[in-house]
Amino acid sequence: MLEDFALLRTLSSEQRQKTFDAMVRQDLVRGQMLVAQGGPSNALFLVLHGALAVRRAGDLEPIAELRAGELVGEIGFFADIPRTADVIAIRDTSVLVLTRAAYEKLAAEAPAVVEALLAALARRFARETARLTPVRSPPKARTVALIGGGSEPLPD
Fold first, then answer.
1. In a designed cystine with 106, which of 22, 31, 47, 92 is the match (CB 3.0 to 4.6 A)?
2. H, E, C per residue of 70-139
3. pTM for this prediction
4. Ranges 12-21, 35-44, 94-103, 116-125: which has the least confidence
5. 99 strand-pairing partners
6. What number of CA atoms fall less than 13 Å from residue 93's CA on the CB side?
């Protein structure tokens, strides 16, 4: 089944099997929280099926929706910082959990997995960058005028 995910398509069947063996399945029901903003980033997740909403505390609208084949929790996991958002199941969902210890062991045994993860993250970054709108800079001044003010004459 893992060969269906673009993330792992470049890996050999043996490397995919090692990746799968390093992960533990977790099932969520609709409305259940996978990770909480500010919580520890001690695992990385791969969505098997279903859908997750990514929300920052206090925001009503999600900032992203994640579906089958997508990574979850990569920002906090790789930056080793607390979770940057809540992730909640918006339908019944299954994920594969890769703990930090399992990732380190997998990276040592199958370094191609690390390359596959980095490529997946780079593709997501490229997609998100393409969605950004350009920042508009304020118009540049085209004319400068000296206007007399007060009782003193203008300098030469």
1. 22
2. CEECHHHHHHCCCCCCEEEECCCEEEEEEEHHHHHHHHHHCHHHHHHHHHHHHHHHHHHHHHCCCCCCCC
3. 0.77
4. 116-125
5. 43
6. 28
